[in-house]
């Protein structure tokens, strides 16, 4: 049984970790979107380019799953990036049905200009914290993400067992 950090009789939304994480994400998103717009890029485009650069995704399906976009919207986004020569599509030589995405040299150059903007925004938003506090926050969030992913896997497995 998990520790009762929250209780219904004393629960307030502003103290909820979910609320605090979402509010933080929204404020960071608003700040970075304005900065990226001045450089001709959207936050969604940035997310796709960074996912490809860091090897977190290589196909439209993986990007849809990781970025929570529907396939139609993601295809339009990929089309935009491809028309700007920032990414390219290639068929997987082992499975011709799979189209893999990768950054072009121009895509890497765009990221080289955008990454300092992202770093500036993150550094400004964390200015009141020490390096140790930032590392602790990262660690706590990673642990929470791992726990939530494990809970999701357990729930999915339980639902599959019930269905069969």
Tell me about this structure:
The protein has helices at residues 17-37, 43-53, 60-67, 71-83, 105-125, 131-163; strands at 87-91, 99-103. The protein is mainly alpha-helical and 164 residues long. It has 2 domains: 13-127, Winged helix-like DNA-binding domain superfamily/Winged helix DNA-binding domain (Arc Repressor Mutant, subunit A); 130-164. A two-stranded antiparallel ribbon has the order 1-2. Helix 1 (17-37) crosses helix 5 and helix 2 packs across helix 5 (105-125). The chain is globular and about 55 Å long. The two termini are 27 Å apart. The relative contact order is 0.09. The mean pLDDT is 92.
Strand and helix layout:
Layout: H1 17-37, H2 43-53, H3 60-67, H4 71-83, E1 87-91, E2 99-103, H5 105-125, H6 131-163
Antiparallel strand pairs: 1-2
Helix pairs in contact: 1-5, 2-5, 3-4
What labels describe this entry?
two-stranded antiparallel ribbon, Arc Repressor Mutant, subunit A, 2 domains, 164 residues
* Distance between the amino and carboxyl termini: 27 Å
Rounded average pLDDT: 92
Give the class from helix and strand content and strand pairing: mainly alpha
Number of DSSP E strands: 2
Which sheet architecture does the biggest sheet show? 2 strands, antiparallel
Spatial strand arrangement across the major sheet: 1-2
Q: What is the CATH first-level class name of the largest domain?
A: Mainly Alpha
Question: What is the CA-atom radius of gyration, in angstroms?
Answer: 19 Å
Helical proportion? 55-70%
Summed up, the helix count is: 6
Sheet-strand content, in percent, reads 5-15%
Q: Examine the coordinates and then state which fold CATH places here, giving the name of the CATH topology of the largest domain.
A: Arc Repressor Mutant, subunit A
Instruction: Estimate the global geometry from the Cα principal axes.
Output: globular
Low-confidence stretches: none
The CATH architecture of the largest domain can be named as Orthogonal Bundle
Give, in order, the helices and strands.
HHHHEEHH
CATH homology superfamily name of the largest domain: Winged helix-like DNA-binding domain superfamily/Winged helix DNA-binding domain
Indicate how many domains the architecture comprises.
Answer: 2
């Amino acid at each position: 049984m998990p520790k009762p950090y929250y209780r219904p009789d004393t629960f307030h939304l502003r103290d909820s970790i979910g609320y605090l994480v979402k509010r933080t994400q929204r404020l960071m998103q608003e700040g970075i979107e304005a900065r990226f717009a001045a450089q001709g890029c959207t936050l969604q485009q940035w997310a796709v380019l960074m996912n490809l650069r860091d090897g977190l995704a290589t196909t439209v399906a993986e990007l849809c799953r990781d970025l929570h976009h529907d396939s139609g919207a993601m295809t339009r986004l990929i089309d935009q990036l491809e028309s700007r020569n920032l990414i390219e599509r290639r068929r997987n030589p082992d499975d011709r049905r799979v189209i893999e995405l990768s950054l072009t040299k121009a895509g890497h150059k765009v990221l080289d200009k955008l990454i300092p903007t992202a770093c500036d925004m993150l550094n400004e938003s964390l200015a009141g914290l020490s390096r140790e506090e930032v590392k602790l926050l990262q660690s706590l969030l990673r642990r929470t993400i791992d726990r939530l992913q494990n809970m999701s896997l357990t729930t999915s497995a339980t639902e599959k067992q019930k269905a069969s």
